[in-house]
Structure formats: C-alpha cells, structure tokens
UniProtKB/TrEMBL annotation:
Pfam families to which the protein is assigned, alphabetical: 2OG-FeII_Oxy_2
Cited SUPFAM superfamilies: Clavaminate synthase-like (SSF51197)
Gene3D superfamilies: Alpha-ketoglutarate-dependent dioxygenase AlkB-like
Domain of life assignment: Eukaryota
Species per Swiss-Prot/TrEMBL record: Leishmania donovani
Keywords associated with the record: Dioxygenase, Iron, Metal-binding, Oxidoreductase
Protein name: 2OG-Fe(II) oxygenase superfamily, putative
Co-factor(s): Fe(2+)
Length: 368
C-alpha cells in the first residue's frame, strides 16, 4: 500500500528496544510545487504551470474582506498534473493573514457544537458538547451534516454555513473556472454554491485512509480544499484501487481543487509533517512548562479515558488574549483541512440565514 511508504511510525520505549529504527521517509517521488527543482524528471514532465491573469485592483482605500485576500492585481499560479487529470493545485494562494484567520475560525468557532456538529458531540463513546476545537476532535461539519456510517447527507440536518467562508470558496471557484485542461471546463461558477464544509483536524501522527468523496449529487462541481498548519503528504490516484497513486506535498496556504476525473478519484493523507509555520503558532521560548508538556505533539490525545470522556475546554472562560494563545497552541503540531463541496443541484438559501442554535435542539445534529 502506498500509505505505508509515507506513514509515520512511532514505537513505545519497549518496542523501540526490540525493533530496528524505521528508515527515514523517502520523499524523492513526492511532487513538490514550492520547489520545482526537487522533483524527479518524470514528475517534471507531468507538471504543467498555468498563470492566471491578475485579478482587478480594488478601489484605493477600500478595505479587503477575508474573501478578497488573494492579493488583487497579482498573478495567481496554478499547476495541473498529467498523472491525475482534473486535479488543480494553487500553491501559496492564501496569504499569511488569511491562513491565520481560517485557523482561528477552525479552532475557536467551527469546533463549537452549539453552532456546528463535530465528532465529540455526535459520534464519541460518551458524546459531550464542546465550546471550540479540543483534542481528540478530528472533524466538524458546516452546512449539511454528513452521516459517516451510511455515507449520506440529510436535508433536515444542517448548521448555518459561515458567510465569509462561503464567499471565499466562491472566489476560489472563480479561479478554478479559468483553467482549461484536457478539453473540459473545470467548474460552473455561476451556479456553484458551497453547501457542506468538513473541517478535518490532523495532529502529527494521524492519517486519513484511502476513500472517495462521491456522496454528493453534484460531482460535476469542484471540491475545494484549503491546507492550513503542518504540511501533509497527499495521495491521489484514479477511481480504481489497482492504479498506483501519485504523492503531493501540500503546505499551509495551498488550495487544491478536485475537478473532472479527479472529483471521484481515490485519495488519502498518510503523513502529517511536524512543520507548522511560525506565523500560525507560538515561539518555543514563549511557552510555559505546562504548555510545553500539554501541547507536545498532541501526546495527550493518545490516552483517552476508559469511558471516552474528556475534560471540556471552556472558551467563555478565556480572555481575548487567551483565545488567541489557545488556537496558536493547538496549531503547533496540527494540520487543519477545510474542504467544501456542493451537495444538491438546487440552491439552498436556508443554509445561509440566521445562525441555528444546535445546543437548543434546533439544528438536527443527528448522526452527521
């Protein structure tokens, strides 16, 4: 299996004495778009660079919203890869300030079970409410909830889709629509509407097994994926498990779009690298001893209590400065992936109305 080639192997002290040390992970065949010279000759032949025209300049003095932080007036780089038709990669398209915003939202807002269901509030052995992201949370859903066991969506189970994230995803899809590849158009921006976003939290040492995202009615619309925090090795192949996948290095600020054939391709995340950018976390010398111990590679996630419960983090008890410090501490050894997709063919205005209070039983959390 390709995943085993890149997986991080960690042994206990007892196992480490009995086993030979695992070999260093060989990244030779990994496609790296931030440093094209590091690619193999074969991969270089498969990489195609697309330069999109500059976005129009905004009026002087006008403030930029989060949805407009793609540095208007500058060219946007996109790469396609002949080995995976339809996969579009936009390296570094999210500015440092925008990455900070989405990390802050992912930790402090998207993990609040009163607003959006997450694995701890719906699927844990002992479900509990959460006020923000906290270990061992692995995912939260925005918009229509997804029932993981049956792999279906439910129209009556949804949370309000954040307006700023909606605007940003539509903005990115407008970039995708400008890329022509292999004779097909990659998107339909005039009718695109992000209706579900799954926020994945990947601490170092975690992984996502091989799967397809094919439960949506609208597979002709792109799936948009934002990478934040630690880098990841991303594998994508075809619709067949018989075909070997290609490996890509995704860094914080990168955006991937699954379009055309890649929209239903098998993919996985076998490895999270421990390299969160400094602008998303706190310097080592600013940590207290308690913080250094607690947030050391999320080791505290590995020992859950016997009944599956956890000590709830109370966001309301934090000052504004404390909340800022908390999300940066959480990002020290973690990757956040926000992936949005359209679920139904028709528009769903109810998703973008007034916030729904799931804590009061109005959100239909269910099993999604």
């Amino acid at each position: 299996m390709a995943e085993k080639r890149y997986k991080l192997y960690e042994f206990s002290r007892r196992e480490a004495r009995r086993r030979p040390p695992p070999p260093e992970t060989d990244l030779t065949d990994v496609v790296q778009l931030h440093d094209l010279d590091r690619n193999t000759d074969e991969n270089k032949r498969l990489i195609h660079r697309v330069v999109l025209p500059p976005k129009p300049q905004h009026n002087e003095g006008a403030s930029l919203s989060a949805a407009e932080e793609a540095q208007p007036g500058k060219e946007v780089l996109c790469y396609t890869f002949a080995g995976v038709p339809g996969l579009l990669l936009f390296p570094g398209v999210l500015s440092e300030a925008e990455q900070q915003r989405w990390c802050r939202e992912a930790v402090l807002d998207y993990g609040d079970s009163a607003k959006h269901p997450n694995i701890l509030s719906t699927h844990a052995k002992a479900p509990q409410s959460t006020s923000c992201y906290q270990p061992p949370m692995r995912w939260a859903t925005l918009g229509y909830s997804y029932e993981w066991t049956r792999k279906v969506y439910h129209r009556d189970r949804y949370s309000t889709f954040p307006s700023a994230l909606r605007a940003r995803m539509c903005n990115l899809v407008s970039l995708v629509a400008e890329v022509q590849q292999d004779g097909f158009c990659c998107a339909y921006p005039d009718v695109y509407e992000p209706q579900t976003a799954i926020v994945n939290y990947y601490p170092v040492g975690s992984m996502m097994m091989c799967h397809q995202d094919i439960s949506e009615e609208t597979l002709e619309q792109p799936l948009m994926s934002l990478s934040l925090g630690c880098s990841a090795i991303f594998l994508m192949g075809t619709q067949s498990r018989e075909d070997a996948p290609y490996a890509f290095l995704l860094r914080s600020g990168d955006v991937a779009a699954f379009t055309g054939p890649s929209r239903s391709a098998l993919h996985s995340i076998p490895r999270i690298l421990d390299d969160c950018p400094e602008y998303l976390t706190l310097p080592e010398d600013e940590l207290t001893e308690a913080e250094r111990h607690r947030y050391q590679q999320h080791a505290y996630c590995a020992r859950p209590t016997s009944d599956g419960s956890f000590l709830r983090v109370e966001k309301a008890m934090m000052t504004a400065e404390g909340q800022e410090r908390y999300w940066r501490l959480c990002m020290r050894h973690m990757r956040v992936n926000i992936n949005a997709r359209q679920v139904y063919n028709e528009r769903c205005p109810a998703l973008f109305g007034a916030p729904r209070d799931l804590a009061q039983g109005k959100g239909g959390i269910g099993a999604g």
